[in-house]
Design goal:
Layout: E1 3-5, E2 12-14, E3 16-19, H1 30-42, E4 47-49, H2 58-66, E5 76-81, H3 96-110, E6 115-120, H4 129-141, E7 145-150, H5 155-167, E8 172-175, H6 190-197, E9 200-203, H7 234-238, H8 244-251, H9 254-259, H10 264-273, E10 278-283, H11 288-295, H12 304-314, H13 323-327
Parallel strand pairs: 3-4, 3-10, 4-5, 5-6, 6-7, 7-8, 8-9, 9-10
Antiparallel strand pairs: 1-2
Helix pairs in contact: 1-2, 1-11, 2-3, 3-4, 4-5, 5-6
């Protein structure tokens, strides 16, 4: 396992992080989830990402139980706040009330006194940004988080949040966007702004929800037990990539992966790690052996010629429109 600084901060994290969105607390049983977390630790992963909304809090609880007994100083634990965690009107968003209540609930579930990174899971158009950043600053000053970050914010929102955080002397060091060889919407605006500000990307879905493994075939039903068959939410997120034209182009990557001595999944993870603004790629798993495969992408350097050929193959189907970040963001209620 190789390690990188999170943006320009002093925090060092494993360049492959383990995330438990979708799987833990919903798609797989706790014993299987625990086995995956143990496999991640054995593979050298020290960075773990979760969120209060994943499986209605169960994902945080599973992670907390699985990491019990580990040396806390040797781990980097990240979580997030924004999405609804209860039925009340204030059980959502980035108000001071919700942030303060949510960090305490997350810490209880994670069985830790602090998280290394506390992230705004989305931008909240209904709460003044000043209120949000001031609340995050107080979380840091209370010792409940070391750093703060955001997820799926536009370049403009990142700049505004970073400016306020700097005024308050709290370290806003990261953004967590979707990023893969099929979903490149951050490259034109978010990455340049982040690089300028010293913010690193912690990217999710580097394998495009499993599509870049090549296991989904054009014209064929999804494999049994795959993300595309998960009725708890996984199928919804992967559906955007399950077009025959996308799958046909993805199949053309197999010879390139073989040429590089990698599996298609390893090629996909290695691809995102070639971006110097990426601090870590988040992988998930429903089986421990998936972790061992993906971790082998750490430290891989892809040749320029191979990267050009990947670009040529995927150019017709890769999404690069920077407006997609704003299109997928929450909208203020009228």
């Amino acid at each position: 396992m190789e390690f990188r600084h999170l943006g320009r901060s002093g925090l060092v994290i494993s360049e492959i992080a383990y995330g438990n969105w979708v799987t833990h607390g919903s798609q797989v049983a706790e014993d299987a989830a625990t086995a995956c977390i143990r496999a991640a630790l054995d593979a050298g992963i020290t960075t773990f990402d979760t969120a209060d909304v994943y499986a209605a809090g169960r994902a945080e609880a599973v992670l907390g139980r699985a990491l019990r007994g580990e040396r806390r100083e040797g781990l980097e634990i990240f979580t997030k706040v924004y999405f609804p965690t209860g039925p009340g009107r204030n059980d959502r968003g980035l108000s001071r009330k919700h942030i303060m209540e949510s960090i305490d609930a997350s810490l209880r579930r994670l069985q830790t006194d602090y998280v290394d990174l506390y992230q705004a899971h989305r931008y909240d158009p209904e709460t003044p940004l000043e209120e949000t950043i001031e609340a995050f600053a107080d979380v840091v000053r209370a010792g409940k988080a070391h750093y703060i970050g955001v997820s799926e914010w536009t370049a403009e929102q990142i700049r505004a949040g970073h400016a306020l955080a700097r005024e308050l002397h709290v370290p806003l060091v990261s953004n967590q966007p979707q990023y893969s060889a099929l979903w490149r919407v951050i490259e034109d605006e978010v990455v340049p702004a982040s690089a300028e500000l010293g913010i690193g990307q912690i990217v999710w879905s580097p394998i495009a929800q499993g599509v870049l493994t090549g296991k989904y075939l054009p014209g064929a039903a999804p494999p049994a037990g795959s993300r595309a068959t998960d009725e708890n939410g996984g199928a919804t997120f992967v559906s955007r990539f399950l077009r025959d034209d996308v799958l046909q182009h993805v199949q053309k990557l197999n010879p390139l992966a073989a040429e590089a001595g990698l599996s298609p999944a390893q090629l996909a993870v290695a691809w995102v790690l070639q971006n110097p603004n990426v601090s870590a790629a988040i992988i998930g798993a429903s089986r421990p052996e998936q972790i061992a495969e993906n971790v082998a992408a750490s430290g891989v350097r892809l040749e320029a010629g191979l990267l050009r050929r990947m670009e040529e193959i995927l150019a017709p189907v890769a999404e690069r429109n920077p407006a997609k970040t704003a299109e997928n963001a929450p909208k203020a209620q009228k």
